Amino acid sequence: MATVRIREFRVRTEHGDVFAKSWTPADGARASAAPIILFHDSLGCVELWRDFPQQLAQASCRSVHAYDRLGFGRSDAHPARLAADFIHAEAHGASANCAKPCRLPSSSPSATASAAAWR
After folding, report:
1. Rounded to the nearest 5 degrees, what angle is found at the Cα of 37, between the Cα atoms of 34 and 41?
2. Any idea which UniProt keywords this protein has (predicted)?
């Protein structure tokens, strides 16, 4: 099975730094294949994905990305009380904030589809 490069990094946002992690097949993700962005449930974090992202990257030959919401996991504390619609509101900002550090095109189909799924 192909090896996977794992990269941990932080994404600066207007409300604090978000922890993110990427898994990329060492032999190179298919250039034309859209990356996969994992959105966890409302209280989850990157660590709860365990080895699934690595297995997904190996099986799909695509890069896989996940992040911790502000106030969860290894991200900074959220600066305010979370609104009832925080998941919906964040979906629109998360794709834009994570696109550049994850090396995603701003119009990435997976970023757009993932954000739309949160509506």
Report:
1. 155
2. Hydrolase
Q: Tens digit of pLDDT for each residue in 26-38? A: 876 676 688 999 9
What count of other Cβ atoms lies within 10 Å of the Cβ of residue 117? 9
Number of domains in the chain: 1
Torsion of CA 81, 87, 88, 89, to 10 degrees: 40
Instruction: Look up the CATH number of the domain holding residue 113.
Output: 3.40.50.1820
Bridge partners, 16 (sequence order): 13
Give the residue among 14, 62, 8 at the shortest CA–CA distance from 37. 62
Q: What angle do CA 42, 112, 54 make, to 5 degrees?
A: 65
Neighbours of 45 (CB within 10 A): 16
Q: Which domain holds residue 16?
A: 4-117
Global confidence as pTM: 0.74
Amino acid identity at 16: G
Amino acid 113: pLDDT: 40
Distance (Å, whole) CA 46 – CA 31:
25
